[in-house]
Specification:
Elements (H helix, E strand, L loop, with lengths): L1 H14 L11 H15 L6 H15 L10 H7 L1 H13 L5 H36 L7 H12 L7 H8 L3 H13 L3 E6 L2 E6 L3 H7 L2
Antiparallel strand pairs: 1-2
């Protein structure tokens, strides 16, 4: 147990850059080493793999690589678990040369990043398609169309009558009617927070727009 405690303390110092290095260590390489370190030491009874991946993401985010939070390395690792195991084995059997694991992890990161880019491209194309379809829909004014386009791009966004009124420089009643109409069409959800109504994009907004002619 004392050995584990000492290793964990050293790992924390390394993670927080408290251990001096003669040469520059790239933040991505540091994050990969932390992943290996925790998974190799196995300080917990269960969940070491999950914690190792979480530590990798934390280190990446700490270094300013926030986009890594949206990159799923797990999906790539799970598709080829034997390669993950071999990366550990080669490192362990070659005097703990981390080159094997670092190269493997960089490959995983590259594949996961490509998957993210492909998803973003598909999503952007889908939003563009639905945006064009909106122009052909009857019963919606230009303010409502703009809000729906914004909602497609920001599905977690919240709208209020006041925010809609301010954005389009209209009177309160007009803004209220716009949002209630979108709610009645099923494009927005409505909930009450304190004394104010909050409108959020319906989780099925894309499907509803795709099915409407």
């Amino acid at each position: 147990m004392a050995w584990h405690d000492e290793r964990v303390h050293k790992m924390c110092d390394f993670a927080n850059e408290k251990i001096p290095h003669k040469k520059f260590l790239h933040p991505i390489v540091r994050a990969i080493i932390l992943h290996f370190w925790l998974a190799y030491d196995h300080p917990f009874t269960d969940g070491n793999g999950r914690v190792a991946r979480a530590l990798f993401y934390w280190s990446m985010s700490r270094a300013g690589h926030w986009l890594s939070e949206y990159v799923s390395i797990s999906s790539v690792i799970y598709r080829g678990p034997s390669r993950y195991g071999r990366a550990f084995l080669y490192t362990e059997t070659d005097d703990n040369d981390l080159t094997y694991f670092i190269l493997y992890h960089l490959h995983v990161l590259d594949q996961a990043t490509k998957k993210l880019h492909a998803y973003i491209q598909r999503k952007s194309a889908r939003v563009q398609e639905l945006t064009e379809r909106l122009h052909g829909l009857e019963g919606l004014n230009h303010r409502q169309r703009e809000l729906i386009v914004h909602a497609l791009r920001h599905p977690q966004q919240e709208y209020t009558i006041e925010s809609h009124r301010t954005s389009h420089n209209v009177v309160y009643q007009t803004a209220r009617r716009d949002l209630l109409d979108l709610y009645e069409h099923g494009y927005l959800r409505k909930l009450k927070r304190s004394k104010e109504f909050i409108f959020k994009p319906d989780p099925m907004l894309e499907q509803k727009l795709a099915g409407r002619r």
